[in-house]
Amino acid sequence: MLRPLSLMTLATFSLATIGCYNTYVVQPEEFARLQAKPDDSTSVAIKDSEGTDVVVENDTRLYVRSSGGRRYPVTPFNFKMTQAQLVASDRDTLLMLDGVDSYEVDHISTWKTVTLASVGALAAAGVIVAIIATAGEKTY
């Protein structure tokens, strides 16, 4: 009886800590602007493929997706792009640019995360109510 409750509680808390993200695909030229942060700013604003402004800070998640579909994490302001390759030494990543399909920036989506956590909490509450309502009965 405690096992389902424990699993639901764990799922709710893990969803709340993981969160949901909006992924913005950016052009290589815009991604290259994230190699170094300007001295007078704590963030850099770039544009995604659709023209939306995307602000990148030190804790923003950056990824490079290879032609094979694998996502490689890249630390903002701590990588180097040349004409032929991307080097992220802190992540031990060296990729040829002709093998890269897309450049991605992930921002946490507050409303998606809250919605997902709320659904998990409601499911957990439903399980608790079902357990309490059927306590003492031989069937569910």
Q: What is the rounded Rg?
A: 21 Å
DSSP strand count: 9
First-residue to last-residue Cα separation? 12 Å
Give the overall average pLDDT: 86
- Characterize the overall form: elongated
| Count, helices | 3
Strand order, sheet with most strands: 1-9-4-5
Q: Structural class, please? A: alpha+beta
- Spans of 5+ residues with little confidence (pLDDT < 50)? none
H-E order: HEHEEEEEEEEH
Helical amount among residues, as a percent range?
A: 25-40%
Q: State which percent range the strand residues make up.
A: 25-35%
Largest sheet: 4 strands, antiparallel
Describe this structure in words.
This protein starts with a helix and ends in a 7-residue tail after the last helix. The model has no long low-confidence stretch (mean pLDDT 86). Helix 1 packs antiparallel against helix 3 (110-133). It is of the alpha+beta class and 140 residues long. It has helices spanning 2-18, 28-32, 110-133; strands at residues 21-26, 44-47, 53-56, 61-66, 71-74, 80-81, 85-88, 93-96, 100-108. The chain contains three helices and nine strands. A hairpin with a 4-residue loop joins strand 7 and strand 8 (93-96). The longest helix is centred in the C-terminal third of the chain and has 24 residues, at 110-133. A four-stranded antiparallel β-sheet has the order 1-9-4-5.
